[in-house]
What does this fold into?
Amino acid sequence: MKKYKHIFFDLDHTLYDFERSTFETLSELCDKYNLTDKGIPVFKYFYNRYLEINDRFWGQYRKGKIEKPFLNVERFHVTFQEFGIDDRDFAGKFATEYVENAPLKNTLFPGAHETLEYLQDKYILHLITNGFEEVQEKKLNTTGLRKYFKTITTSEEAGVKKPDPAIFHYALSKAGAVPEESLMIGDNLEVDILGAKNVGMDQMFFNIEKTPHNGKITFEISELIEIRGLL
Ligand SMILES: [Mg+2]
It folds into this structure.
């Protein structure tokens, strides 16, 4: 297939197994601070609540309703509160350690390197990510992914987050690409897929859970290795 010249990837939950890195890092921090003795006897309960609360804060962050430092601390503060630990200073310390340690986990999805190696000979590869700039930079170093990408666009640099069309336009222009010859690969229907569609890019949905949906999408995969057969 030679239709595409540029391929844009999302990072978290697409190439980088963010859940695994989060799970491992939080579990280690809970051990470190002995949270089993302080109201969190079962880590999994804490983890599941954290994921829900974190999603809620990220939704607000994407809409520009809250700022990054607030998001970072409050997602832990609110989760701890539910387990009877109401200590914003501790939540702040915990949040800082989480942000420092999580990107040091080398948790890529299976086939990430092989797929990118295959693609880099045929296409020009780029990243568009809503993650925090310094965190994404660390992850790219830890995982060795940096070398595959010609450009990296973060929402912090672009000033807006996916699915805002402006970040896609920004990334396309940085890449010297036009939408008609570009494909966006990502795990989030609203943020990546609809976002790309709205600026005229083709899309590939990485649907690892095989979640049913009604979206009309150019390609859909549930494992990264499927990409080789499609592109
Ligand atoms: Mg993602």
Summary: The pocket of magnesium ion is lined by residues 10, 12-14, 186-188 (CB under 6 Å). The first strand starts at residue 6 and ends at 9. The first helix runs from residue 18 to 32.
